[in-house]
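Mods, move this if it's the wrong board.
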Amino acid sequence: MSTLKVFGVYGESDSGKTTLIVQLVTRLTTEGYKVATVKQTNKAISMDTKDKDTWRHHHAGAHLVVFSSRSETNFLLDGPLSSSEILQRISNVGRFDFILIEGADDPSIPKIQIGSGKKRSNTIATYKNNFQEIFCLLKKERTIRSSASDLSIRVNGIDVPLTQFPAQIISNTIIGMLESLKTVQDIRTVTIELKR
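Not the wrong board. Structure tokens:
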């Protein structure tokens, strides 16, 4: 699952993950980027409050509970989701320039490590009070990944609208299969026509 703009931040408890995410969000939004964030934890905790209406809806058996007020809307899904399922749902909500995941452990997501500890796969940098370097790296990586592909699909002559996440999954799958062919090199454009 390679995505255009998803980056993770991980490290031990109290290592400064949230502080770094907040600094990145502040700087990115100041520069005009639209940012989504995800907080992942291995702990079995809930952001819902016991005996509140939404909690009662959930405990009555609802698989999805939505709380909406004049200031925000919260979606509470019953059960955990994988990183790819979370990202798919975020892509259905809107278009974001960056998605930052605190506590990311999915091996396909590029990550920033804070502090020592076991390095996770796809770690692209380590944060050591080098905010400007990390900030520039994320912008550079996003530019490289964003220029990777542009995909449009037509089924029965009708354009199929794709959000960025599924478009990238389909593109990566097609490119990966084609790159495994001995006669294919330096892929710039691909045209596939399928008739059934």
